[in-house]
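wait is this the right file?? whatever heres the structure
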């Protein structure tokens, strides 16, 4: 394992921005080609983490390839920033990746790579197979990147940090990384604002926003807001497309447990026998359960939700389109923190006693 405190800038300085974009687009082409080697790696990732169904891995990969790793999209993205062709003073950027959905930390890695800094990556034990292989494959396409990207068991000696985790782990991150420039992400979730006039197709798309990745992503909808006298039957019918989740014992265990809790507490609920709808104030819902609440003024509710730091995105006819919650674009930054801008400004900041930019 390389000592991250001694990473040199030689290789990354020899690669200009255009070369980095080309290398990343080659990686996307490799992922989409789906050759035997890549298929084998995906199978290992699915076997190591039950929550990573093969279809989830394929969906995450397809989104990354089509939304992130297209040469024209990468070029258009970086044009929005004053990124030098050659990074004259690359910094060591520690990345703590989450593991709730496949390749959830890829965008952070992409930002660091594009910015010309050195990426020091600590993958989640739940999602290390895919990212490790992709980095090794990137070295094949561009060997000069070997001295600027490192997989590390611990992050020490970095100039800045990007860390994603739970509310509990964020306190740990604050303690250890707080004196450096940093982005620290905590628990977030997403909501849907319905009018009752959604089409059958829109509700089917919303069902994917809710249930894709078993609902474990921060962009998954865990609470819906509806007007008074809303008819839940069409939504419950739309959610039946995910009935097959009950074939997976961990999901079924969660459904059975949450159902038992509701019955024992004599709480009202609705179900299609594979997901539970429960009226609750909290935005976060457990696996196999969706919370709902009523509203009387949609505009006021939306303003409140936009101010809520727990909300990642709002799905509605006027906001994130139904079915698009888990299809972020390059500039859809987690928690609203512009990661690329943060990285582009790192060189202008002393590493001691700096806070989130």
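ok assuming it is, sequence goes like this
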């Amino acid at each position: 394992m390389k000592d991250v405190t001694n990473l040199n800038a030689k290789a990354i300085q020899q690669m200009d921005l255009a070369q980095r974009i080309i290398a990343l687009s080659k990686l996307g082409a490799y992922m989409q080609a789906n050759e035997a080697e890549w298929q084998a790696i995906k199978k290992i990732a699915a076997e190591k983490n039950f929550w990573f169904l093969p279809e989830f891995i394929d969906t995450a990969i397809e989104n990354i390839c089509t939304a992130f790793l297209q040469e024209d999209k990468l070029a258009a993205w970086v044009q929005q920033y004053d990124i030098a062709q050659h990074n004259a003073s690359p910094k060591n950027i520690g990345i703590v990746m989450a593991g709730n959905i496949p390749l959830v930390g890829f965008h952070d890695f992409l930002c660091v790579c594009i910015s010309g800094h050195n990426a020091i990556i600590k993958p989640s034990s739940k999602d290390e197979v895919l990212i490790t292989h992709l980095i090794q494959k990137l070295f094949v396409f561009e060997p000069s990147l070997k001295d600027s990207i490192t997989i590390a068991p611990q992050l020490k000696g970095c100039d800045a940090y990007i860390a994603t985790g739970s509310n509990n782990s964020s306190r740990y991150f604050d303690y250890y990384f707080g004196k450096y420039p940093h982005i620290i992400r905590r628990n977030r979730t997403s909501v849907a604002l319905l009018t009752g006039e959604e089409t059958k197709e829109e509700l089917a798309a919303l069902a994917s926003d809710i249930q894709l990745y078993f609902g474990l992503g921060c962009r998954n909808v865990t609470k819906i807001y509806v007007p008074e006298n809303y008819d839940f039957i069409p939504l419950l019918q739309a959610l039946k497309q995910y009935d097959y989740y009950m074939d997976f014992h961990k999901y079924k265990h969660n459904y059975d447990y949450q159902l038992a809790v509701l019955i024992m507490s004599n709480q009202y609920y609705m179900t299609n026998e594979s997901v539970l709808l429960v009226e609750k104030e909290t935005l976060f819902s457990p696996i196999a359960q969706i919370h709902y609440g009523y509203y009387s003024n949609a505009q006021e509710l939306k303003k409140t939700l936009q101010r809520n730091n727990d909300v990642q995105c709002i799905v509605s006819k006027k906001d994130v389109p139904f079915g698009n919650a888990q299809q972020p674009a390059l500039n859809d930054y987690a928690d609203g923190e512009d990661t690329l801008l943060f990285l582009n400004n790192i060189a202008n900041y002393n590493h001691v006693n700096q806070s989130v930019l």
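Residues 17-33 form the longest helix (17 residues). so i think its the right one actually
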